[in-house]
Amino acid sequence: MTRGEHAPLDAEAVRGDFPILSRTVRDGRPLVYLDSGATSQKPRQVLDAERGFYERHNAAVHRGAHQLAEEATDAYEAARSTIASFVGADAGEVVFTKNATEGVNLVAYAMGNAATADEPYRRFSVGPGDEVVVTEMEHHANLVPWQELCRRTGATLRWFGLTEDGRLDLSDMEDLVNERTKLVALTHQSNVLGTVNPVREVTARAHEVGALVLLDAAQSVPHMPVDVRELGCDFLVFSGHKMLGPNGIGVLYGRAELLAAMPPFITGGAMIGVVHMDHSTWAEPPQRFEAGVPMAPQAVGLAAACDYLSAVGMDRVAEHEHRLTEYAVKLLGGIDGVRIVGPTDTVDRGGAVSFTVEGIHPHDLGQVLDDEGVEVRVGHHCAWPLHRRYQVQATTRASFYLYNTLADVEALAGAVRTAQRFFGTAEAR
Amino acid sequence: MRLDAMYQEIILDHYRNPHNKGLREPFEGEAHHINPTCGDEVTLRVHLAPGSGEGGAAKVADVSYDSMGCSISQASASVMTDLLIGRTVEEGLEMLDAFNELMHSKGQGEPDEDVLEDAVAFAGVSKYPARIKCALLAWMAWKDATVQSLGSDPRAGGDGPEGVS
Fold first, then answer.
1. Which of B29, B44, B51, B53 has the most CB atoms around its CB within 10 Å?
2. Using alpha carbons only, what angle is made at residue A247 by residues A245 and A250, rounded to the nearest 5 degrees?
């Protein structure tokens, strides 16, 4: 199949795989779920895969020599391969974490630990004079760990600003990313603005000065084709639960040679080479970064989610969400008093649409939407500095996925008008 | 609709025309509270007056505030100031307890209108766990600012901070 020739995604057919989407909320209203940016719903195929593991193969992986342990380990490692190829990585470059947040922390703490690690693991150490660069649109998960790393090590935190229309301001990139820069951490797709960042451009500059790039892909891997080699990033993190997979599992991708040179973050069982009473050595990656009995059933569930998305086709998922986003920007943008915070064109823009409604606080708007069965996120969406940048205290965010329909977007716009009538802020039309 | 039960007219009235809003002097205690989930915030000042009657119970002479937030948090602050100004600290703390209990009643509370007066209008909020913090924001700030006020000026009466915690 070539791009443009395939049939568009059939959201109605997809919806049949998601049991929760047929339930009602708040006195019998059909559920209009527009909060996939926070967490996605799960198809039966994923639930079945996780249940199947528990019912047939459950054992602690990478431990024990009995048959169940073998089967569980095989299932876990097969899941790693599936998930790795979903983002164009090798299996050995995929570390399972609790979620994307833990993936960022893993790298930040490994860098912090590098200064006091044995000689082979000192490559990533940072200290006074070194700089870490982030952006003003980061989710707290890709901001606070770097603030903390800088605080602990004496390194300096710097950041890209944003333009009025919700894009990354690259005008001072030459100055910002320089010979002192150790790492640039940025989001691939903003969880608030929907903006898809020019990763290749930033990566090219970072590599020019010898800095590493960590990409927060929690909002991109679920929604568009992502290939780590094509992007050229050094690290990439994402969460399973935002991409039809189970909770409690996330992924850190790291280039093989980087993972090999990194000291561990969490230590304990299964991540060791040899243990003595007074010291230990480390296992090779990815095991070095997976202390304790890992989340095998969730890995199996996440692999099933990757298979599900691959079968639909990530191109088609992205195209479908693009249609929904276009429609949402048009319908919401056409309502008096609505201000979209983020790009109002749909170039390099994903399916998170955040907005304010004049005279109605997002909490109150969310309450009315909820009463209509429309479930959105209200607040600062773990991106407080971004909200401050656009001088809004909070926003309402609708975020789409492959199971949403144009009718969902209409329900959203209708509910916003209902809220305006309820609070008397716009003429009832 | 459920909405009408939550957004009582009295709440919307206070939201549109808040009472006692704006920071004023004098004050002995000031508290700044933020709801970290939504960023709503309130800065609240308390001015206490020494009691004159038997036992010398401190009185709430003034409560002033500046705030940003949703209708529930704004209206709750406004209603609260109406209730508290002119009462003794002890009476205020009793109201706070009653209001707190109402907010955690999951929609099952039967508020005592004699104690809570207009604040009974917030009973519907208790059905929505995500909104309880909105309604309590100003009350908690008042409690903190009052503790400060009592600590800063023992002549205001009361037992000091230990007595109200």
1. B44
2. 75
